[in-house]
Amino acid sequence: MRSLAGDGFLLRGAVLGGVIAGILLPIVVGLWETGRAGFGLLPAIGADEISLAPWRELAEMPGLATSLRLTLVTGIGATLLSLLLAIGFCAAVHGRLSQRAGGRILTPFLAAPHAAMAIGLAFLLSPSGWIARAFAPVLGWDRPPMLATVNDPWGGALILGLMVKEVPFLLLVILSALSQLPVRAHLTAGRSLGYGRGIVWIKVIMPQVWPLIRLPVMVVLAYALSAVDMALILGPSNPPTLAVMLLRLFSDPDLSRILPASAGALLQGVLVVLAFAALFALERLVRAAGLWWLRRGGRGVTAEPGLRLATWFTGALLALGALAMASLLLWSLAWRWPWPALLPESWSLRAWSTPGSGWGAALATTVILAAGSTAAALALAIAWLEGEDRAGTRRAGWASALIYLPLLVPQIAFLYGLNVAFLRLGVSGDLAAVVWAHTLFVFPYVMIALSDPWRALDPRHLRAAGSLGAGPWRRLFAVKLPILLTPILTAAAIGVAVSVAQYLPTLFIGAGRVASLTTEAVTLSSSSDRRITGVYATLQAGLPFLAYAAAFAIPALMHRNRRALTSEGIA
Fold first, then answer.
1. pLDDT for the residue 568
2. Using the 8-state DSSP alphabet, how is residue 480 labeled?
3. What pLDDT does residue 563 have?
4. Which of 492, 543, 227 is closest to 359 using CA atoms?
5. Is the peptide bond before 260 cis (omega within 30 degrees of 0)?
6. Measured on CA atoms in the order 453, 457, 462, 465, is the torsion positive or negative?
7. Please, which domain of life does this record's source organism belong to (predicted)?
8. Are the CB atoms for 258 and 40 separated by under 8 Å?
9. Alpha-carbon gap, residue 286 to 298, rounded angstroms
10. Can you tell me the distance from the alpha carbon of 171 to that of 84, in angstroms, rounded to the nearest whole number?
């Protein structure tokens, strides 16, 4: 036993060293290089003196104040609204929707990449989109209305797009947290004291749920404040959000613009840190107000109308997301689609007919990136979890923070600096470097998805195998991995979805020489040919769907005679 614990500590130490070297170090190096450029140090373009000139140039940029306002309004607004809807929906349907059923319903929305969903929403919400076509006969429109429904200057379309993606994620996170609490007992006790369902949720259940979902909410907030792909497609264009403005500066032919862009990238990081600080301050304020409310008592307040409203809005968001995904496929097959017809008059496969000179190469590159990064992340996650098991220790708080770190730091704050480091090593633009960059973001999701099923494995299986003489490695490969095949493949499907969705890592680390479905779809989203855009976005959304289908089908086939090993048996 002592030898096994020693092996566990060695394995865990090796994995931790790999995580630090492969994930933490690139982020630190990227932030360091971005910080140097932000303060005037970039010898490659002749800037070799520390200076505040980049910050002055950034402050003088036209529209900077508007970009900051748009970033805060869209990022914080989308996160707050998504959280309220997810909490209200879970409070209304809990007991009628299991975690397993919720996962199956939400999987298509989680699998769809952000860019694909944004393109579908643009097709849906545009003045010539499905919604306007549906209202045209009623309102007497003989042509598309002159309304800024996409790329509106207030960021409304961007907020809606972020909510369509983030509400399902938060719903799944909250459902998972609720499975760890005696919710039914709390509701019964509260109702017996005369409180309504909504008040019991606010006063009793949510204070217990919040610590379990705080980190995922921070991930949502960090992404919403620094999103580039969705902001390019749905957000305001002139001026844009801060992240899009920085991307334009980094891509400017004038290399001196890299310096104010780097300063802006640091500012983007500061905004996220301040948002986190505001979140913690709000948590303390709500806690103090909640304690006062609990002590005051009272049963006259009801939250039932709010729960019904949250349910309706959440259902509408999910329906909007489903229609957005359908519109991608529809536009890729449409040929003639006059206004205001709800369906095309004629159909064609012409947009799909040239894979060799079009989407074929981008599809192959995307598959290679997804397979490579997911395989690396899975190997690292399994080694980490096995090391914890053998050492017999629980994960420390700092280790969990390390796992979440790539999701909490804005991508644009360190990816340019990381590309500078890769340029010095001579690997920028290399496919392997892009796989590594994808792994930075795939690993946290794979690790989070696999941790709970791994810990829930019945230890009696391992003890029985050990009593038959199986060593630790044989127990891993002959017992653990076969039993956990469904969670492992599910984590792999999540990894594929995350990799396919990566835009900035592919763009920056690929140095413009690695074209994936996501980079091409985002570029094409501003073109006038919706058919070609629909093809790329459909393929981009289709790959994660195939991965999830394989995650469900493979265990069902392999374990068809072993019900306890199927997804139903181990869920």
1. 46
2. I
3. 63
4. 543
5. no
6. negative
7. Bacteria
8. no
9. 18
10. 10
Residue 193, both tokens: 């004291």
Cβ neighbours around 411 below 10 Å, total: 27
The neighbour count for residue 86, using CB atoms within 10 Å, is: 26
Is the CA virtual torsion 96, 101, 103, 107 positive or negative?
A: negative
- State pTM to two decimals: 0.91
pLDDT value of position 73: 96
**Nearest-angstrom CA–CA distance, 493 and 499:** 10
The whole-angstrom separation of Cα 185 and Cα 79 is 30
Q: Looking at residue 35, what DSSP letter applies?
A: H
The tokens for 168 are 């399902």
Pair of tokens at residue 460:
């009696």
Q: What is the CA radius of gyration of the chain?
A: 25
- What is the average pLDDT value for the chain, to the nearest integer? 87
Asked if pLDDT for residue 5 goes beyond 70, the answer is no
Q: How many CB atoms lie within 10 A of CB 49?
A: 9
Tokens 């209200």, located at residue: 88
Record the tokens describing residue 284, joined without a space.
């303390």
Give the whole-angstrom CA distance, residue 366 versus residue 558: 28
Residues 356-402 have pLDDT tens digits of 557 888 999 999 999 999 999 999 999 888 888 777 777 767 777 88
DSSP 8-state class, residue 247: H
Cis before 555 (ω within 30): no
**Residues for the chain: how many in total?**
571
Instruction: Lowest mean pLDDT of 115-124, 182-191, 299-308, 409-418, name the range.
Output: 299-308
Q: Compute the average pLDDT of residues 251-270.
A: 93
Q: Could you give the CA distance from residue 235 to residue 215 in angstroms, rounded to a whole number?
A: 26
Q: Rounded distance, CA 324 to CA 319, Å?
A: 9
**Cα angle, residue 492 at apex, residues 31 and 6 outer, rounded to 5°:** 75
Task: Say how far apart CA 349 and CA 543 lie, in whole Å.
Answer: 19
Kindly write down the DSSP assignment for every residue of 101-113, as one continuous string.
Answer: HHHHHHHHHHHS-
